[in-house]
Specification:
5-stranded parallel β-sheet; Rossmann fold; DNA polymerase, domain 1; alpha/beta; 2 domains
């Protein structure tokens, strides 16, 4: 492995929790169980379009409701949607602070303007990142190959100098295919274990 200069973090599922409690209590019904909702969310064209930056929040809500065959009051929908951004995993700040002394840090996230606003206003970790790559600003989403190549171009370094940590197997495979050193991790503990195993901590 080449000398590592840069570490890229996914955000949700790695540095902060994704919380579905508010969504389940506000969006589910007799016609839509929590399990069905999560499955539909993962494959939703409306969600993917919003994360790609192709639509605004009002249009996303309309499209998502049509997909689900349900309708929610605007405030109830937006409140639950914002609450998907849960709390930071314990140790997130400490890990980033420790790594920032030796490596350039970046984040690469499939996200949307609403959740990004929540992240920026609620947490103070974004300042650790020299570069931030968000799907809605890039117009590209993981695991698209062009998204990873765009990130490498933005960083200005070859893939073999980069470590990418993500909680999605398809994203990890795509990163490896683009020459990055990638690891599948869950939470800060998983990130620490992976980095230690690579001799980076």
């Amino acid at each position: 492995m080449s000398r590592i200069t840069t570490i890229i973090f996914d955000l949700g599922g790695v540095l902060f929790e994704l919380s579905w409690d508010s969504v389940f209590s506000n969006w589910t019904s007799d016609r839509l169980t929590p399990e069905q909702l999560l499955e539909k969310w993962r494959v939703s064209p409306a969600v993917r379009r919003f994360e790609r930056g192709d639509t605004d929040f009002a249009s996303f809500k309309d499209e998502f409701e049509k997909e689900m065959g349900l309708s929610w009051p605007d405030e109830k929908f937006e409140g639950a949607f914002r609450d998907i951004v849960g709390g930071l995993y314990p140790g997130s700040r400490e890990l980033l602070s420790e790594l920032s002394e030796r490596y350039l840090l970046a984040c690469f996230s499939n996200t949307n303007p609403v959740h990004w606003d929540v992240l920026a206003s609620r947490f103070d970790i974004l300042g650790f990142f020299s570069k931030t790559f968000t799907s809605f600003e890039m117009g590209m989403v993981k695991p698209e190959r062009k998204a990873f190549l765009h990130v490498l171009e933005g960083l200005g370094c070859p893939g073999d100098e980069v470590v990418f940590l993500d909680d999605g197997q398809a994203n990890v495979r795509a990163a490896v295919d683009c020459g990055m050193n990638a690891r599948l991790v869950k939470g800060v503990r998983g990130a620490r274990e992976a980095l230690a195993d690579m001799g980076l901590l």
